[in-house]
Amino acid sequence: xxxxxxxxxxxYQKAKELAQSDDPAVRAALAERKDLSPELLYxxxxxxxxxxxxxxxxxxxxxxxxDILLAHDDDENVRGSLAQKxxxxxxxxSQEASxxxxxxxxxxxxxxxxxxxxxxxxxxxxxxxxxVDAPPDIIKRLANDIEIEVSGPVLEFSxxxxxxxxxxxxxxxPAVGGVAAIARRDGVTESLADAIIGSDDVEGIAxxxxxxxxxxxxxxxxxxxxxxxxxxxxxxxxxxxxxxxEGAAQRMAGFIAENLLEELSKRADFDAPTMAxxxxxxxxxxxxxGGHDKKSLNAGFDFLKVDPPLDTAKRLNAAGKLxxxxxVKALQAGDHAFVFAAMIExxxxxxxxxxxxxxxxxxxxxVALLGRARMPASMVIMVxxxxxxxxxxxxxxxxxxxxxxxxxxxxxxxxxxxxxxxERA
Length: 425
Hints:
Layout: H1 12-18, H2 24-31, H3 38-44, H4 50-58, H5 64-70, H6 76-89, H7 99-113, H8 118-128, H9 136-143, H10 148-157, H11 163-172, H12 178-183, H13 190-198, H14 202-210, H15 218-227, H16 235-240, H17 248-253, H18 258-265, H19 272-285, H20 310-318, H21 324-332, H22 336-347, H23 351-359, H24 363-372, H25 380-387, H26 408-424
Helix pairs in contact: 2-4, 4-6, 5-7, 6-7, 6-8, 8-10, 11-13, 18-19, 20-22, 21-22, 22-24, 23-26, 24-26
């Protein structure tokens, strides 16, 4: 656009005349010039044309006062252009820059990080995600944004965020997809991996398992392998993950989806006995002859045939994180083993009692267990259908998603009834 004004220098007087031109294209071309005086750039920052103001916004020669002004601009594209420019300029301010300039720049960044339009905040986040010396308070503000398009880039890439920052964000509950973004970071430590697993975010754990640079404690990985029997989203990254715990391959071969069996059996890092055992199980599952003395091959698809992750549920409950949202999300994702463990932990009942209720396929017992666990009414039908396999005609239905369909007296009676049954058994 600068071609409109030619290539040569322009005198101050001429530039002043052009700044008042009736043609917005001329004023925009003028606003792009790096040799324009600060006062004229500030003047153009208040131009009626958004194109002119946007030209000032991207001009690195514009004085910092224009950044403050344009951060309040009515046009989101102007603010977005400013965000991109100032995010690149701010970290490069040397110690020689005046304190006033640094303060003004930081003030503009704060305004943009708090912009009501998520697109503007997202542009700022994308521009700052790789910047090593970006302002920590600005990065943390973006990382805690409620919109994943804003928080995601810095959560996944920013070197400014410390491990403690990331753990605190996970504990506070980031935007949906935030845990997964953290799980994709390069070089996730064991402590950070523990926090990701402790969040029980299904997608986040899947991304953690798929991140070969992430360090996961063997005990934690072993637990996730067991839980993956009812959480198919974790199976592909587990099959591809390097350095599986001892015995994991054989266990996984018994329950992973059939389309993953061939991939598991072709891994080159298993020793001869492990490979032979895996191939035997694969042949069994695909209809060959012979058997093995492991768990039932279909055990993974039945939460009653695998050990529920009670330790995980207990740890979450102790930390005050085994709340309704976590359990409902696990139920929606089909992680029935975890839901079962959560019900047992929150209800404070024995595993044998809970198993007895589901083995008997008793709708009243299931609803009573949910009631003792103080689970929301919205789960009642889903648990009976998906986990209890209750016939539609026998399902106990709540009046609505907020009214639990069983009184406290009936809950207590049913729990006592099945407790006696479990003891006799």
